[in-house]
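User: Can you write out an input/output pair for a complex, sequences first and structure second?

Assistant: Here is one pair. Inputs:
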Amino acid sequence: MTMSQLGRHGLSLLFVTILSVSMIGCGDPQETQKQGNSGVTSLSNQMLPSGSMPDGVYWGDLHVHSRLSMDSFSFGNRMMTADDAFKFAKGEPVEAHTGDIAQLRKPLDFLLVSDHAEFLGVIASIMDRKHGIETTALGKRWSGWLEDNNIQSIINEWVGSFDADTSSPDAKPKIEYPDEAFFKGVWGEMVETAERHNDPGKFSAFSGYEWTSMIDGDNMHRVVIFRDGAEKTLGAIPVSSTENSDPEYLWERLEAYENQTGGEVLAIPHNSNLSEGRMYSSERVSGTIFDTKYAKTRIRWEPVLEMTQVKGDSETHPLLSPDDPFADFERWDETDINSNVIPDDKKIEVYTGSYARPALKTGLAMEESLGVNPFKFGMIGSTDSHTVMATADSDNYYGKFVDSEPSPERLMSKMGGILWNNRMLTAAGYAAVWAEENSREAIFDAIKRKEVFATTGPRIVLRFFGGWDFENADLELPDYATQGYKRGVPMGGDLTGSDLAVQSSKNLSPRFIITASKDPDGANLDRAQIVKGWLDDDGSLHEKVFNVAWSGPRTLDNVSGGLAPVGSTVNVAKASYTNTIGAENLATVWRDPEFDPSLRAFYYVRVLEIPTPRWTTYDAQRFNLDLPDDIPVSIQERVYSSPIWFTPAVN
Amino acid sequence: MKRIMAMLLKEPLFIFVLFSILLFCIFLSQKAVPDNVIIVSEERLKEFYQYSRQSFGLAAISNKLQVMSTEERNELTEEFIRAEVLVREARRMGLDEGDFIIRQRLIQKLEFLSDTQANIPEKAEALLVDWFEKNKDNYRQPSEISFTHIYFIHEGREKAQEVLAALISQDPMAITEQGNRFLYHKSYQRKSQEEITAHFGENFASSVFDLPFSSEWQGPLASRHGYHLVRITDKSEAQIPELMDVRQKVLFDLKLSLSLASRNEYADTLRDKYTIISK
């Protein structure tokens, strides 16, 4: 055991050495740094160790549950463990609950098994008679219900405990809660599993968990991800929202972890679409308004949002983005996470706090008043699968809970028997990360500097740089990315009005390099778009979508800038499509024609695939079923980059 | 006495007679039940309850019938009778004939029966080491490669050769900014042939794995995108893992193979009872 570990570390050390030697050939790194910073201030660039440059995109899922999660177990996953989750992500076959042999077509590069901290592993440990839980009053009571197959009584108790009273710091959950020794045992197992599967250079296995706060049914969930290995994480027993459901409390605990261990940790929110406007509300949970300290703290701990996953896409909403023909995508907008219906007259207000694009806009206004943008976040996707199987491909989709694994019933069944229709689930998403190598450290650091993008499933390779002097000719360079880093900033970075270039020429506009290559095994690309949001000098917020690169002989409408649809090759009956339309690769340098150097703005890229069958269409074909008419037969899968922000010079 | 018993037990005729008597007794104890009689027994009620509630093998369920109120029990009995009547009538009308779902279900049940009789989990544990030894080629972990490359478009073959010559003679001008923009990555780390195929196509993937491991630039290799100069930074040969590292996967495969074998064997035995006529 020790020998093989030594061997593994030795190998990765050797590999890092080779890598750094090969980098020397690429020019003097010090020199590059000097030239590259010609006035461009970028957090992103500064945070990279000098000389190294992300040259690979790594694909992963930072949000998967195993039987240790209460809901996963209660809804039927009695056996599948974190171990199975890692194996599946690495491309090995596992046996699904339906008896199918499930396997990814392409393995992932990293994974975080994020089991719910609340009652973490309690019911699974009761079943296994482990960690002493079976001898407690709770253990005995639940054990009895488990034997009676009375899962509902167990569910009632743990669900009830989520609406914990946060009014006082020592509020307790409504039922007795297992002691720390128990959770130490469960967490120890989780950390050990991640360590065993971590294989630097090949596969990164993160430790972490999900903090599951639901205030009045508003989804405030966060996935907590550690950069560190067992020597630091082992003592960091997951923080439960039953202690306190205010994210500010979670951040305090994360800070304590960093102070105590010298390690690093982040929180990643998800399903803002089910937060009833609370995730990106302008008020703190306590009801007070934001101040500068809060804004700093928030963006310190939450640099990215998981904005696409099985429970819908959180980019934007048609009511908020009426001019965006692609805004109506995989919506889960009728209720909050507890199925409380959102009243019609509240929709605009609620959605403004629930979706990424309006939140990015709100952030600009907040920065104007607070000096710090609390919503300056990048974007990733993940699945939120509760059966350990991290699938996001429409033609190989294993759903959320056991009841949405492939079967002739899942088109008509409801999640957990009573919740949403399973057919509403989205076959999404993954996190794409630009990093120097496949290691926990490199991937974590990329997330922290927001050099990441979200995909609804397809592994479209997207690069995005912002700068002042990019030319179309740069696209012909083999190392255009080197130029991107030298003369600009990558996705997640900043352009500012104090950049030398802007100051010396008032007529400059930011220019962006955008390249997108299709998933080698997937559909062609329809178009690349830039979504711009800005804060006007009268305090109003605006957004606009620009079509910047597209396939085939189409031209932009002179007035609206609109572009005709790419068409469709989808055959619904056969659940098929052909790559006879669309492009393999889109690349352009785009200059903002409406730039005003005195206004705050952000720019992010959205790339659309040509239409392909939705997962439900594959199901209908496979099981010979009629398709319900409340779901689309085809969708345009997409990737979203993290934004690049522009901040005017301080006068 | 003991010796006589032992002798008798070895005598086939004795065993046969004993067995026949036993069978006859069982036969006598059975009274034929007419088609239109439904017997409601504790056992059948319990079975019906378990199926209709989809819960099996739990102690609480077995006791459920005892603790039921008379009202609940009568209701359950009525449900059971109704179901039994419908099933019998449907069978009488031949509705089960030619129903594909029922046929599949019957096959499944028989196969399941064959699985349980074959003691697969125990057998699999016992056979594991030998079976892995025989099949370990299937668990070979693929060869992996790490490399950087310089890409040239389809028309750029000559240019690629020039750049290669410059690289070999260590002309510093040749080292940076040569070639064209590639769709995917500049370097690849620990990738299998399958993964390389996804980005470059099959020809390139097999040629790059055939290159000798050397720190020199090599090529140009053709791919579906054009040509590539390649420098390999790491390469590992395919290897057979230790059983302990792949135990669960091997066990899973072995069980699957045992169950398939036992199902086939069982089906063959049954098939021997039939005469097949082709028309």
